[in-house]
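Contributing new records

If you add data, match the layout below exactly. Sequence lines come first and carry their own label; structure lines follow with theirs. Keep one chain per record. Anything else will be rejected by the validation script.
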Amino acid sequence: MLLLNNLYSKRNLWQLFKIFLFTISLCVVSCAEVNQKSAEESELISKLNIIPNPAIIKSEPGSFKLTSDVKIVALPRNTEMDNNVVTLLHQLSAVGVKLDVNNLSSDKVNEIQLVLNKVYDSVLGAEGYVLDIKPSKVNIQANKPAGVFYGIQSLIQLLPNGIENKEVLIPCVYIEDFPRFAWRGLLIDPAHYFLPKDVVMEYIDQMAKYKYNILQLHLANDNAWRIEIKAFPKLTEIGSWRVPRTGEWRTFEEPQPGEKSTYGGYYTQEELKELVKYAHKRNVTIVPGIEIPGHSLAMIASYPSTSCTGVQYDVNPGSPIPNDMTTALCAGNESNFEMLDKILDEYVEIFPSEYIHIGGDEVNKKFWKTCPKCQKRMKDENLSNEDELQSYFIHRVEKMLTDKGRKLVGWDEILEGGLTPDATVMNWRGMEGGIKAAQMKHDVVVADKFYTYFDKRQTDPKIMPIPANGLVRLSQVYKFEPVPDNVDPKYILGGQGCLWGEYISTKGRLEYMTWPRGFALSEVLWSPKGKRDLDEFITRVEAQFPSLERYPINYSKSIYDPIITPVKNKDGIMKITFSSDVKGLDFFYTLNGTRPDDFSNRYKQQPVDIPKGASQVWVVSYRDGKPCGESLSISIDELRRRLNTRQFIDPS
């Protein structure tokens, strides 16, 4: 009996063991299926290549067949939703797909549905959307028409390149998406070099595709006045024109006696109103700019009495400003405030924007110190210095805008002398101004020149010598964080890229300096911070290039350019490394002054010794056996200087 019991127990144990093994095998299979599904989802998501990266993406089985039989349905029908239908039709047509519109939804045909929520979804907010792609339906749903518009932009990015009226398969996915920041802006600068209206329109088209919603239009500075003001016609008759010059900005010869001002142009009020309507249909708000009280030479040249000297000056053509010339409006001249009030009346009549940008940066207060009117103003207002006089000036302008139902936004110099009560600060000189303003409970738009100034070079100065004002690579933009530590995020409205126009005189140059760095900033401002992955982002950037080429857009390929970084070993001896924004490239280099190719020294991902007597390093990047970036040649002495000054050292 004991023996039988033992056998029975062993048999039970064996049965239990087999059950255990079977259970484990089921778990392994189940886990494998989950892992396979996760891998498939990751692969699918990696092929979506949407910029900016959506907040939530889930893969779904199957695909949607986009053919000429597909219909578009918008619910409800109103002006803004009709604009979205037109946008979708136009963007599909641009890639070779022509569709019709249905007034009513039907289960009998495949549809793209554009739908406004009947119940407000607080997660999506005013600009979020849901894009749900199933085999028979594409549904874009949002609280507001703006959200539907952004859902359309994501849908268009899912289309393959090279469509020619044939059947197109779009992967079935579920996307839930919404922006991190409300202010997602770019600044363009037709004041330095005039940009025709159609160029601005094309730029609006491109920025809207990547979910930017603010275009700051820099309309006045020392070098031009670009907006028609009917109360003061000389602003455009005189201020919009200057003597022609070609070459490097700030090196130009001053206007000569008798020389005619033949370069320039301006926007009429009707043209600007047309731009505003065009932008509005693409959910872009134009924030107009005026430069006061500094950088106002074009205004002073038009009306000399507005300055402290009253001297007739020429509009500056890009030459150095002489020491005996003022570029600041007289803060003691009461008629200046009366003039500005009338100018701003016309600004707000043209632009429905909540904000007007008044500049306020880099004010040369030297002439205020000796101006009797300015000194009298300081005495009458009990102001202790010229910084407080600037604050007084900004206070007066803010009151004008408040009375007109608008808000003032200005560069961080408006903090000097005391910030006006309701001003919004746009900090550009680093994060300090934004931190200070936010801690004072003022709204802030971050336009940090170290991350968002797209007028700076995007590659090594030996490859791109002009502009000569610093370096901001795409990888650097992608590391930008608009919310500083120890600051309440609710005061950070968002951020803005700035394309100052000293070296941007054509449409092609404007595009080249914006893209692809504009992709990086759009993702920083729209996508969740935790989703950032530079290498994965670069993959999506490269996937956008064929689309840019199709339009065509003159984008920069500097992400492939080699980066030479000098480093010191533990003994203090300088060595060099090679890299680029794009991972996985091959680098071939020489140290004997000859041009490198793929038969030269291959970089092996280790710091390279500099042999005795070497005076120059030359490198070129390759991918798949073909050169893909500009070649770069730098002297060893220059690399030592960079190492000592940390200038142009790879920020990564």
